Amino acid sequence: MSINMDVITDISVALGKILYYFLESLLYKIIPKTKKNVAGEIVLITGAGSGLGRQLAIHFARLGAILVLWDINQEGNTETCSLAKENGGEKVFPYTCDCSNRQEVYRVADQVRKEVGDVTILINNAGIATGKFFLDIPDHMVEKSFLVNAISHFWTCKAFLPAMIKANHGHLVCISSIAGVCGINGLSDYSASKFAAFGFAESLFFELTMVKKTEVKTTIVCPHFINTGMFEGCTSKYPFLLPILEQEYVAKKIVNAILEEQVYLMMPKFLYIILILKQIISPKMLMALGEYLGVDTCMVSFKGRKKANELQTETEGKHQ
Ligand SMILES: NC(=O)c1ccc[n+]([C@@H]2O[C@H](COP(=O)([O-])OP(=O)(O)OC[C@H]3O[C@@H](n4cnc5c(N)ncnc54)[C@H](O)[C@@H]3O)[C@@H](O)[C@H]2O)c1
């Protein structure tokens, strides 16, 4: 029997690389990576007007970054701008922008390029949650969830990625969710849009690696519920396993993941176990685990965040 040398070479190279990267990741678990310096980097945060976006703005202001803050909520964004300045931000530029509107994203992106410069760290954070069971979700809110939580990422990346690729320097950050890796009842539109955001960011990461733009980094963030108000009323049956996370803590972890150029960040760590279990146990066992953790009932008292939802402009049937 003749042995195809090409096959043996391919397998050896693949195994060698897998072993190398496995040992490298083990090493980084013991010796933390050196953190990159973001002073002077142009950081754009969508959904900066409250919650996580606001906390991220404060952190990056302290690190000496130039901040570009986008939100549909002008009032909230202006407040974040003041807080960023109070926390050492010398150059902070707020823009009112509805990320779900393609034309508006491209128009405001042009303005940012002219007035501030090329964005080097793009944090796709803006998000909405309808908070209704599937058959009760109005059609336009299904569309809105996808437009804000996922499709807007296509427009912002189209606007700012070319300059990052040209310079082979930049960082794309996708704020997905635990609902972007596990379906959650009562969150079908939100969860599906967060899976989409995750899939888009991960695909782009592989695409950038393939074309050797390895200095354009990617970070994908999947947190459990955070106390920002977005999921007001949601509870955790066993907080020691799945706690409702503090927004300051989550922001700190995200900034750290960006500085260490981590590709994935799941919070809390217990989520990694759920992900592994999801691949190997039966769906009934997964449901039993969900019931035990109270995931099946955590949405019962959730009513959705009205403010952000009300501010959405009417785009149903208008986007192309
Ligand atoms: N809160 C949680 O439990 C939780 C958990 C996992 C992931 N996340 C994700 O984290 C991100 C931040 O959420 P948060 O908890 O800070 O909620 P939040 O409601 O406090 O912040 C979301 C921000 O996005 C803005 N926004 C909404 N629609 C917009 C639009 N069309 N254009 C521009 N801005 C818009 C809102 O005005 C708001 O300031 C979201 O993507 C959310 O899905 C939140």
Automatic annotation (TrEMBL):
Top-level taxon: Eukaryota
GO (cellular component) term, any one: lipid droplet
Gene Ontology MF terms in the entry: oxidoreductase activity, acting on the CH-OH group of donors, NAD or NADP as acceptor
InterPro entries listed in its UniProt record: NAD(P)-bd_dom_sf, SDR_fam
One Pfam assignment: adh_short
Gene3D superfamilies: NAD(P)-binding Rossmann-like Domain
UniProt record similarity statement: Belongs to the short-chain dehydrogenases/reductases (SDR) family.
Name this polypeptide is given: Short-chain dehydrogenase/reductase family 16C member 6-like
Organism, scientific name: Piliocolobus tephrosceles (Ugandan red Colobus)
